[in-house]
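Shift notes (night). Ran Monooxygenase while the centrifuge was going.
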Amino acid sequence: MLFIQFTLLVAAVSALPSSTNLAARQACTSPRLRKSWSKATVEERLAYLEAAVCVTKKPSRLNKHENATLHDDFAYTHAVLNYDIHSFAGFLPWHRYFVMVYEKALQDCGYKGTAMYWDWVADSDNATLSAVWDPVTGFGGNGGGTGNHGNHAPPVQDGPFKDHRPLYSDTAVDQHRLCRNWNRGFDENKELFGHKYTPQVVAEVLANSSYDGFREQLEGGPHASVHFGVAVGSGRGKIGDLVPSSSPNDPIFFLHHTMVDRLWWIWQQADESRTNAYDGFHRPPQGAPDGEQGPPVTLDDILPMGDLAPNGIVGDYMDTRNANLCYEYPKWEYD
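Came back to this:
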């Protein structure tokens, strides 16, 4: 009898994807709280910034170019995988894992905390005044100055990343100063397109009952609007680093995507059945005829990370309170 039970157990484990980490899906006992940048202490912000600057100076893991740093590796990985990680169901778990890889890179630089988020919902009335843009306890402000910057928007003028020189534009080597091009608002629009991620707008996104309906509205609405608001100013032509596929060039990317992850977490918390809710379709191969659809997604799908980190499995990144992730967020607080 024991032999039969053991055989059945081996068969069940063998049927799982080889990279699935069963221990990782167990609940953690003390999930850490990821904080809003605006509610973190000055000491917590400065510790994060010190580690983030460290990541921009550490040697590359990918070794694609002699001038590459570890921070460049994040931008390159995101750019290479661009088609496969956007505009389909995997957008949310892939970026959840990506932020976790970055959090671990910060911790390798001596940081003791967790990833933090830019609460652009709370800041939507005037996002240019957010604490994240502080020149001392934030990421510096908009691009500016004089001169010809080629294909790039004006470089960032202050803050700890004003001398940061990202290596890539999309996947091409194109070293340049970190650049931003804030949309300063026009007509009825709020600055940085804040009218597209107000509490009312985001509440409507959260009201979606299906995972892929929620993902699609979040990705194409508030998420995209923040990218464009920071990087595509009206009347200034050239784009900043937060818009191309190499958008992790701008360290604010990780606070932005931690906020995206927080909204997914809030959506999941609204109904216990949503913890593993995952539906939709993969994108078809690039160049496929219009209207062609990829196969249905599953919790066993791979989350590719190139050589930046081991590939993940979607099911390992659905529950933030498992041993694989072990964190949580403040709940909805905009009513």
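The first helix runs from residue 2 to 14. The chain has a mean pLDDT of 91.
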